[in-house]
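cron nightly-structures :: item 1 of 1
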Amino acid sequence: MLNLGWFSTGRGLGSRALLSTVHQAIADGRIKARISFVFSNRAPGEHEGSDRFFALANSLGFTVVHHSSRTFRRQWTGAPSQWRSAYDAEVSDLIAPFSPDLCVLAGYMLIVSPEICRKFSMINLHPAAPHGPDGTWQDVIWQLIDQRATHSGVKIHLVTKELDRGPTITYCQYSIRGKDFDHHWNAIGEASVTDLQNTLGEDLPLFQAIRAEGVKRELPLLVETLAALSQGAISLSPDSPPQDLTSKIEGSFRTA
């Protein structure tokens, strides 16, 4: 049975959905694991979204560990470039007693330091296909639009010092063309991303359509990946080939 640690900033509904869905999959026996702690880089009272996340984690019976990165950074007196490593050193001390086999970054909005990556195995959910755009989900979508891309995806990868570029464990892909998308692409014509950002911004229908397709696949991919890892069907070895779970994820929509 995998001993999991869960990392999340807990900003909104998506973070709560990830935690509750995986908790249910564990309860149903699909994932052979336990979540021994839930960590957030926010403190109670710091943000309404994270407070709701803490309330959910507590209601599910999880041990919640928190350490405000905002407060830490504000009080940090060392070199500005070193605050993140110093912060992660304290986080490491906080979670070490739980001895996690694997830490899951699910809506965790900090870039983790190389030091903590070396101490703990970590995986991250990233809203792009292998070799796709880096950055936040907003960054990814704008890059896809700028590239006039035809496909996108979701991947789960090992966390390394290279942002969003650790070895891919699993992934799925989907088209952002066809009957559900072509009218959105036609609507923007040759407009630049800068112009689109300055007019409709994230309310742009194409932006919203791409986001919806990605979100729809994030939860199934995370559950399938954790289930396979907990059953020994796939490995965390960086030398293992990435597993394409597209057909399984798409099949889950047809049978839902």
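cron nightly-structures :: done
Residues 205-230 form the longest helix (26 residues).
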